[in-house]
Please model this.
Amino acid sequence: MLVVPGLIFLTRFVVSVPVLVVEGKRGRAALSRSWNLVVGRSWPVFGTLLVSGLIAGAVSGVLTAPFSGAWLVRGLVAGIASAITTPFTGLVFSLVYFDLRVRKDG
Model:
């Protein structure tokens, strides 16, 4: 019952961290700004998040799949895969933020 509202909130608050970093707004102000930027563009933002999540998951899966036997090695490789995919997702969130800001603010 909470999956759909969770996805809505995820979509609306996805650019709150770039708002915090770039605009310097904190707490509720950053969340409110993120919400206002995404309103009217929720489906494209959700699609971008979905595609980037699938790409990051696929890369992580490809890197960790050969090490399915040893849990220690698999954990280390999963950490390396996370170190590779986390900057990618952060970059996607930042690009979404700048795209929304250009579209909303001009």
The radius of gyration is 16 Å.
